[in-house]
Amino acid sequence: MIGPAAQDVQPDGDDRLVLTHVFYGMHALSVGSAGTLGLVAAGMALLLWHDTQSPLVRAHWAYLWRSAALSWLAMVVTSPLYLLFGLPGGLAWLLIAAWMLWRCAHGWRRWTQALPPA
To answer: What is the chain's pLDDT, residue by residue, as a tens digit (118 residues)?
Structure first.
C-alpha cells in the first residue's frame, strides 16, 4: 500500500488513508478547475474532521485547508490586477497555481512517507 500503514493512522482505519489521497488529488486538480475541486475537498474534510482521531490525518487535512485558503486569498487579492491589466494578473495566477501544485506535491509526498506535512 502506498502511504502510511493503517496502524499509523488508527483508529480511523483505511478509509482515512484513501480519503487523504483523494483530497490531495482533488486539491491538485483544483488548479485546473478554478479551485472548485479544492473547495469540495476542503468541505468534505471539514465534515469528517470530528470523526478523525489520528493526529497525522488531522495535520494533513489542516495543511490542505491552509494551502487552499492561502491560494484563494491570493487569487482574490490579485484579481484586480488580472481584471485591470490582464497579463500581469495572469502571471500572478500562474504563480499561485504553481505554488498550490508544489504544496500538494510536497504534502502528498510527506503523506506517503507517513510524515507530518511541515
So the answer is: 455 554 554 445 668 888 999 999 999 998 888 778 888 998 898 898 888 888 999 999 999 999 989 988 998 999 998 888 888 888 999 999 999 999 999 999 999 999 999 7
Distance CA 102, CA 64 (A): 12
Q: Is the pTM of this model over 0.85?
A: no
- C-alpha triplet 59, 15, 68: angle, nearest 5°: 40
Return the number of other C-beta atoms located less than 10 Å from residue 85's C-beta: 12
Give the contacts of 72 (CB within 8 A, at least 6 positions apart).
35, 38
CB of 18 closer than 8 Å to CB of 3:
no
Query: How many other CB atoms are there within 10 angstroms of residue 77's CB atom?
Result: 11
Contact status, residue 73 vs residue 88, Cβ threshold 8 Å: no
- Give, for 11, the enclosing helix (H) or strand (E): none
